[in-house]
Design a protein that fits this description.
This protein is α/β, with parallel strands linked by helices. Helices cover about 30% and strands about 15% of the residues. Strands 1, 2, 3, 4, 5, 6, 9, 10 and 11 form a nine-stranded mixed β-sheet that branches. α1 (about 10-20) packs across α12. The chain is globular.
Length: about 450
């Protein structure tokens, strides 16, 4: 049973305040436009566990992402894009709704996306788009709530990991080529890709590291589980090996993206398709003592790639310096399609960032959450870009990201900036519903699948 209800008072006031801060009110010129038949397609691609600083697109010294480099040369790239959480479920809930975790209350695998949340698939489906999803993780199981609004919902989570990316591409291309349906499509495509266990096919596995006796690729999940916490030391050589395996996964996945983009060209769909590529979170390699993801709010976990291409509608080869987030994807798609946005969508339409309407002094606010009280708040203040991490027990740590981009040097003092970010955190908390979202019963089979991909803490 869905126990969530609309809450007014403090929560509504907080929503209005945050909307005014981030420019999240109704975008100028919004409204219903042409019939769906004259509208473009939308292809939203999520690559699980993809750090932008491991892509040559973002300056990495290994050529891991030629397909993404090409896509970016034909569209816009955000230099600083952020997920709202270091975990798959809450980040995709935000990607689908344009609302923060504190609003949709979907914080982990045990909570489903509530049925009263309106997803982008539902919004576009009602307006006449054909909707389909192809996903490759147990996180998207039927009953998770992520199936809301999709006419066709394909889940490939039970295939061997090395087979999933190719299967995702094959099924997605088949759905793109549905010539018997004249409607524009909205397609969501999820690649499990770089997520642990790191076990790319031969030819990619050892591309950047010759290998170690142990751990072998098939046991990387177990190794990461045993060494994921700060204080559990990992030799530098093993870290280099793990990074090499991770980069091999990215390079293999990039080849599948190349196949998918080539299919758009071959089907003569590229010009009429808005393509968005992003990720749900990054990955740690002991920058702050941890391995894997989901357990902290550091930059290496929250920063994600964000690339958008729509030939003739978006500029080509433009790099955007402003902060953006997964929370902005829904309002941006609705803005570009000239569709109405629900009043409770929090993100901002990003079009002003590249069309010349953006003011350089506009406030930037980035929110990360692991739970209602464990959050990070980043903002560009007059004295620089600062980030406040608030632990569940109330402990606070402040960083200045201008000269410490990974947030590794805690600051003392700076009381004015600290108080400013505390106030922003209080406003985010005020957005929360008074009652929690819907809980899930996790089957023994799902528990085992979660253990295999590293989510031990969620299934205890």
């Amino acid at each position: 049973m869905n126990t969530r209800r609309t809450v007014f008072g403090a929560a509504a006031a907080g929503a209005l305040w945050l909307a005014s801060l981030t420019g999240c009110g109704a975008d100028p010129g919004e409204g219903q436009a042409d019939s769906p038949g004259s509208q473009p397609n939308v292809l939203l691609i999520s690559i699980d566990t993809l750090r932008p600083d491991h892509l040559d697109l973002y300056g990495y010294d290994r050529e891991t992402s030629p397909a993404l480099v090409r896509l970016a040369s034909e569209g816009v790239v955000y230099e600083r894009a952020y997920a709202p959480s270091p975990s798959t479920v809450p980040s995709h809930a935000t990607l689908f709704t344009g609302r923060l975790p504190t609003q949709h209350r979907t914080f982990n695998f045990k909570t489903k996306l509530p049925t009263d949340e309106r997803t982008l698939a539902e919004l576009l489906g009602v307006d006449g788009w054909r909707t389909f999803s192809v996903a490759s993780s147990v996180r998207f199981h039927v009953g998770s709530g992520f199936e809301q609004g999709f006419e066709e919902y394909v889940l490939l989570d039970k295939l061997p990991k090395n087979d999933r990316s190719r299967a995702v591409t094959d099924r997605s291309v088949a759905l793109l080529a549905a010539a018997d349906d004249a409607r524009p499509f909205f397609g969501f495509v999820h690649y499990f890709g770089p997520h642990e266990p790191y076990a790319a096919p031969e030819g990619f596995r050892g591309r950047w590291h010759p290998g170690l006796v142990s751990p072998v690729p098939e046991t990387t999940s177990r190794y990461l589980q045993l060494h994921r916490k700060p204080g559990q030391l990992v030799p530098d050589e093993t870290l280099d090996y793990l990074r090499g395996l991770y980069d091999g996964e990215i390079a293999y996945l990039d080849g599948e993206l190349a196949r998918l983009f080539a299919a758009l060209d071959e089907l003569d769909l590229a010009r009429d398709t808005l393509v968005i590529v992003t990720s749900d979170h990054g990955e740690e390699f002991k920058e702050h003592g941890g391995l894997s993801h989901s357990h902290s709010l550091h930059e290496e976990l929250l920063r994600v790639p964000l690339i958008m291409r729509w030939p003739g509608r978006l500029p080509a080869g433009e790099r955007i310096p402003y902060a953006a987030g997964l929370v902005d994807v829904v309002p941006t798609v609705l803005q570009l399609l000239d569709r109405e946005r629900p009043s409770n969508v929090l993100g901002r339409g990003l079009e002003s960032d590249w069309n010349g309407d953006r003011r350089p002094d506009d406030v930037e606010l980035v929110v990360g959450q692991r739970g209602p009280d464990h959050m990070s708040i980043s903002a560009r203040l007059p004295s620089g870009r600062f980030k406040l991490v608030i632990e569940e027990d109330g402990r606070e740590t402040l960083f200045r990201l201008d000269d410490d981009p990974l947030g590794t040097r805690p600051l003392s003092g700076h009381e004015r900036e600290l108080e400013h970010l505390r106030q922003r955190a209080a406003s985010v908390r005020a957005l929360a519903s008074l009652e929690s979202g819907e809980d899930l019963t996790v089957s023994p089979e799902m528990r085992e699948m979660l253990r295999e991909i590293g989510y031990v803490e969620e299934v205890r």
